[in-house]
Amino acid sequence: MSGCWSGLTYERDTNGDAIDYDQTPFKSFCAMLQSYYLDPFLLLVLLLALILWRQHQILKKLDNLKNHSREYTLVESSPRTDGGAVSRTISDHIQRLEATLREIAERISGFQTDYAKEISKVKLEFPRFIRIQEPAEWLHRIAQYFEYASIVEDQKVPLASFYLEEEANQWLQWLQRSYKQDEEEITWEIFKKELVSRFGPSEDSGEALSRVKQTGSLRDYIKEFERLSTRVENCPTKDLIQKFIGGLQEETAEYVRMYNPKTLHEMVQIARYAEVKLSRERHSSISG
Where do transmembrane segments lie in this chain (predicted)? Predict the structure, then answer.
């Protein structure tokens, strides 16, 4: 019996010979991740796929071990003249199987620790901020980075400060000087508020969201609504749904109101379904 599962090596085959396998698949995967910048969400999907693959390999090996165990049981129950020798051979094989199963259990229990060490080597690029960017978009991206890298609250402002470019860097120097004179600390919440106030849009985001209308495709309207809504903090879901419906074309808006969505996801899905349905109805009336 021989086999290897991405870093899990079976020490001996059925003849008792030593086996040595490369532990390449998992380490090659991690090496690949170190060479590229990946979106955190895509990274999580890849990591989940790797975990599922490794679990599948374990289950396959366990099934093979169980099959071998059953074969040995059948041999033990068959009549043989050299019963003592057969019994000792079977006992040796079963001991090896049990040892391998224990090794698998130990490797699984230590998997999370080893896995975390490997993943910690993955390089994620911290996004830089320049004047032409939307502050809300940049803040969202670095929030993802902070969560992934487990950055504590008092390290967020110093870390983000290293990645402000050009005019934004000059603004930070002025802000630090101003707060220092007032003997106040720039917390992460203050930093975010000041950044949006300085580089965000001059118009009120809430008013802009109320004024946005669907003048073209539903996809473009959803895109613009999402962009503006990210600037509005602490706006209840109910209010966002009302604003969204209010900006839709009348036929689509009536259809969405009829279904009375309770979540933002429902709201968008119903609007998309309404657009398809209304488009088919218009096409049918023209064809008829």
Answer: 35-53
* C-alpha distances in Å from residue 12, one per residue of 82, 109, 111, 112, 182: 25, 21, 22, 25, 71
Indicate the pLDDT class of residue 252, thresholds 50, 70 and 90: very high
Residue 151 tokens, joined: 């950055």
Domain residue extents for the chain: 89-123, 135-199, 205-281
Mean pLDDT across 128-153: 81
- DSSP annotation of 110 reads T
Beta bridge partners of 5: 8
Mind giving me the DSSP string for 37-84?
---HHHHHHHHHHHHHHHHHHHHHHHHHHHHHHHHHHHHHHS--TTHH
Sign of CA dihedral 182, 188, 189, 193: positive
Question: How far is residue 225 from each of residues 38, 207, 222, measured CA to CA in Å?
Answer: 27, 12, 5
Cα separation, 31 vs 123, whole angstroms: 10
Which parts of the chain fold into alpha helices (H)? Answer: 24-35, 40-77, 83-109, 111-119, 135-149, 153-161, 167-181, 188-199, 205-211, 218-229, 237-247, 250-259, 264-287
Token code pair at residue 215: 């003048």
Res. 270: pLDDT tops 90:
yes
The residue length of the chain stands at: 288
At 18 the pLDDT is 43
Single-letter amino acid, residue 127: P
User: Rounded to whole angstroms, how far apart are CA atoms 169 and 173?
Assistant: 6
Closest CA to 262 of 249, 250, 247, 244: 244
